[in-house]
Amino acid sequence: MFVTVRYGDDQRKIFNPHSKNENLLENIKLNCGCGEKEVVDVSDERGVVKNLRNFPSDYGSDFLKERETLVLLTVQNGVTATDDNISADNDRPVFTPHLTSLRNDREFLDTLNQDVDLDQSDSLSQSGRRHHMSEGDDDVFHKEKRKGKTGTPGKKSILRRSTKSALKK
C-alpha cells in the first residue's frame, strides 16, 4: 500500500501509510522540504483535510485509501490570517497548501478552511477511518489483529482445516 503526496511545483513523493500518523507526518515533512518546527497535515485533492495530526498513535492506513493522492498542508494554529485568500478565527487552524498551483485556488482554500464546529470536526475526521469503533474497542481490535483473529480466514487457514479433516478420515 502506498499514497502519493503532492507539494511544491507539482512534485510528488510516495509514502507507506502503514505507520503511526506521527511518524508518517514526520517522514513526509522530512522528505518534502518542510521546516523542522512546521506543523503539517494532508488533504485529498478536493481539499478535505485528513486530520492525521489529531490521531498521532493511529495508523495512516486506517485513514487513507490505497494509492490515494494527497496534498501537503501547513497548519497554523491560533493565528489570524493576513492573506486575503484565507480568513480564520483565532481558535481554528488555518491550512495552507504546499502545492503551488492550489495556493490561489479559491474553491480548494474554502474547502480546506471551511467553518466546521469543533465537535463536528472529530466526527468528520473519524468518518474517514475504515474502522468505526470506540477507543476501548480499538485496543481490542489491535490485540485480536496481532493474534490473527480478525477478518476472514485466508487460503492457508482453509487449506489447513481441509487437510486436517482429510487426515482424520
Automatic annotation (TrEMBL):
Pfam families: Il2rg. Residues 133-142 have a biased composition (Basic and acidic residues). Residues 157-169 have a biased composition (Basic residues). Residues 119-169 are annotated as: Disordered. InterPro entries: CXorf65-like (IPR039471). PANTHER family: PB1 DOMAIN-CONTAINING PROTEIN (PTHR33887). This is Uncharacterized protein. It comes from Littorina saxatilis.
